[in-house]
Design goal:
Helix content is 68%, strand content 0%. With 238 residues, the protein is an all-alpha fold. The relative contact order is 0.12.
Length: 238
Amino acid sequence: MTRSIPLRARSVAAKQQRQQAILDAARSLGLERSVREVTLTDIAAAVGMHKSAMLRYFETREQIFLTLTAEGWQEWSAAIGSRLRDLSDDAGPESVAAAVAESLVARPFFCDLLAQAPLNLERNVSPDTARAFKKVVLAEVDTVTAVLRRRLGVTERQARDVISTATGMAGALWQMAAPGTHLRTLYEAHPELAHALVDVGPQLTRILTALLRGMRATPTAAPDSVEGTSATCSGSRP
């Protein structure tokens, strides 16, 4: 549905309102289709603006979705932190893995963004925008890392590996699952293609369970290092 708002934001509050309208439109379109299929023209039409006017608020289409990716990290970090803290003290790797997997699967738009961020979103923004995005992600990774360390008794590097695996695989598996696309319909219609059907939640849970069990079985945790804490190079790979 096209929204009609003033042609030019003439105050800070009006500019913030316009920016939020753009983000809301991009989010709705991304949920309806997929992030890679939404163009700047689509977003402009949804908010009743000309495409050229959008550039007063965001430098590129990719910056719009990168902003939404950062918001997704903040929301997921708070949610998974709360969920992990609520687990019983005797919760094992399976329970932790399921909690992490379910928290990601419950956020399909975030899963889509996690895949798109390193592939293209980060590649068409200014260095300042990329840096600002990374700072947000690193802060949220630090928050989740602290919760995982308390919950599992793992090292900082191991906790970051869990986050990297969880978010990276969530993005990749979501793309493979192709929900709501003609590919998914094709896979479901032909039994010989059943191997291509990906059930993201259970598969991600199995992967994370195996990873956490392996960490628990490690006699002595490897010491943390600068190398292990500076590898966050994408929205989905801390």
